[in-house]
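Hi V.,

You were right to ask for the full record rather than a summary. Here it is.
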Amino acid sequence: MLAKALAGGLSLQGTGEALSIGAAGLFMRSLTGNPMDVHLHTGANLRRYLLKLEGVSLRNKLLALLTWHTGPEVRSTQNRMEPPPQPNREAVAALPVRTQAALLDALEESIYTQPPTDWSKVTNLGQMRAVPEVKNTVNLAQQYADLGYDPDALISRLATIVVHDNFTEMHAFKHHQATFEEFHATRLPWRWRHLVSAAQASAISYGKNMEVYEEAVELLHA
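Predicted structure:
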């Protein structure tokens, strides 16, 4: 599909943007509860970075775009997908309308109150699934986007949540940075997909393992 679009005249930058939008859509369909699926986003983000670099040959830029889907972290996601469209528009429409501040608080609470993981039932981290309550966070983030609220306020709030994480060995950190960059590099109306994806990743990672954060807080007397 990308090759056909390029042959039809789509620019490298336009192809990179399309890849990024598609990656965000696939991430929101993902059922994963493990760190790996963030590579859907970070892989696209890296390729868009390479497209802007001088000294990278046209051949290598094309190869970068056309091989995004070949990584094992990306390929494994195809077995853990919900049907489109995601988020569920009916569920989003049913939410009560809140002010920006109230909606940010509701979104944060939805993440902080995710059910705890029963690690005795986790035999393969790579196959770990997210709890259904993650979708509550996704729906709230989509409502935030639909209402046209301040994106920077959402980015900042999610950042304060992501920094708790060391379960994903910094995958959540990388994903948050990637979604921030992709939001600012993508045009409307598609750019908000990245921030909704950021909310989903925050909900998946929060509470699993926060030992580094907790030790740092104790040492800093924060």
